[in-house]
What we know:
This protein has about 240 residues and is mostly helical.
Amino acid sequence: xxxxxxxxxxxxxxxxxxxxxxxxxxxxxxxxxxxxxxxxxxxxxxxxxxxxxxxxxxxxxxxxxxxxxxxxxxxxxxxxxxxxxxxxxxxxxxxxxxxxxxxxxxxxxxxxxxxxxxxxxxxxxxxxxxxxxxxxxxxxxxxxxxxxxxxxxxxxxxxxxxxxxxxxxxxxxxxxxxxxxxxxxxxxxxxxxxxxxxxxxxxxxxxxxxxxxxxxxxxxxxxxxxxxxxxxxxxxxxxxx
Length: 241
């Protein structure tokens, strides 16, 4: 690097001062967003919970700008919603939103199963790794980590399409997908079937039984969608009372 910050041929021009400022600002907001994300998906902050900037900033020891940026991050992810009269709150999923999310999931994940037919077991290993992480989190009684591993399984499934654009598109659903899975996972009246269901999907793909896998995935998604619609319906009623 030449003096004064001017780049020599082949070098990328940088300014260390501005780089440091950008990294620190992003890191702090991301850390706050991650802390809130964990509380939302872990059930400590339920849908509809108010998230006032001042309270967040004071309780987490950050500036209001940082708290605001963290809320913006979670809003883009679909975990936080803004209302003119109530301000920022943990998002409440509507039945229409659930239907739309699962319409997208069905299209992409079914395509991922189809793509698995031309791939070897090594390429499918990330799916197995995600299942192992689900099991480990389940054994440790860590619902947040279990949801994270569940999301990773479906991310890897879509990743079998080997399309960077579809991967980015699916990433936009991640926050809402986290919220969906969190609501299902913490339902006390239903035992968690994640390990067995995901293992079956994985083994069907590895064994080349894509037709049976599609059928199983369709049932898995349909049951999840109906469960979530019921939850969304009840949340909507409670919010209106």
